[in-house]
């Protein structure tokens, strides 16, 4: 890995950053965010922790960058259908449900990733993440033009919060998954795409109602 350590040009450094993000993404298919240490990440990359920190100040910064990269890739390929608002947001729910990396990292933000990180790194992440959320809001307004710009941004915020809340319950530990197979606990099982879609239908219906009422005043 000596070539990795000798990266000097901006292009080489960016290539190294992307390589680290690729390893982090692989690790997330094997274990939850909470179990991935900077030491393990460095070992899998083939570098010392010191060398990894040359590219990312902490493991949290790695996952911030990975989330924004994954969001950008998702939005690049996202195609929302034309039709009623309920169909649009249900399609959104199904699409993001097929992106477990995004759901994992969004659900880990408040509880895990925004703890051991500098104010500067959080600011950079949130500014970039905000631009991606604004892009999603614009896409939603293209399909649901009745939404005001503010309501579209609010709908995206609700989407993030709902994902963060629902994803852990839809992906429980093995013990919990076994327990809820009991027919008496059927109501405890969470179909992520279905539950998220339903919640977003409620959210968009409420926002449209509020927008319409505001216009009549």
From TrEMBL:
Q: Which Pfam families match?
A: TetR_C_34 (PF17929), TetR_N (PF00440)
Q: Which GO terms describe its molecular function?
A: DNA-binding transcription factor activity; transcription cis-regulatory region binding
Which segments constitute the HTH tetR-type domain?
A: 14-74
Q: Which UniProt keywords apply?
A: DNA-binding, Transcription, Transcription regulation
Protein origin, superkingdom: Bacteria
Entry-linked InterPro entries: Homeodomain-like_sf, HTH-type_TetR-like_transc_reg, HTH_TetR, TetR_C_34
User: What residue ranges does this record give for the DNA-binding region?
Assistant: 37-56
Q: Which residues cross the membrane?
A: none
What protein does this entry describe? DNA-binding transcriptional regulator, AcrR family
Q: Which organism is it from?
A: Paractinoplanes atraurantiacus
């Amino acid at each position: 890995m000596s070539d990795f350590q000798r990266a000097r040009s901006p292009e080489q450094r960016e290539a190294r950053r992307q390589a680290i993000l690729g390893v982090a993404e692989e690790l997330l298919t094997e274990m939850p965010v909470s179990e991935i240490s900077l030491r393990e990440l460095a070992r899998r990359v083939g570098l010392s922790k010191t060398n990894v920190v040359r590219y990312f100040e902490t493991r949290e910064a790695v996952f911030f960058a990975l989330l924004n990269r994954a969001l950008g890739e998702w939005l690049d390929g996202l195609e929302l259908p034309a039709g009623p608002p309920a169909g649009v947001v249900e399609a959104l729910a199904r699409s993001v449900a097929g992106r477990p990396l995004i759901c994992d990292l969004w659900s880990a933000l408040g509880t895990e990733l925004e703890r051991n990180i500098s104010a500067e790194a959080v600011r950079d992440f949130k500014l970039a993440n905000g631009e991606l959320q604004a892009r999603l809001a614009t896409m939603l307004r293209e399909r649901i033009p009745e939404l005001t710009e503010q309501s579209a941004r609010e709908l995206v915020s609700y989407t993030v919060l709902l994902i963060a809340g629902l994803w852990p319950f839809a992906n429980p530990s093995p013990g919990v998954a076994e327990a809820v197979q009991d027919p008496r606990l059927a109501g405890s099982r969470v179909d992520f795409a279905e539950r998220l879609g339903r919640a977003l239908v409620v959210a968009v219906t409420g926002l449209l109602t509020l927008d319409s009422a505001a216009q009549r005043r």
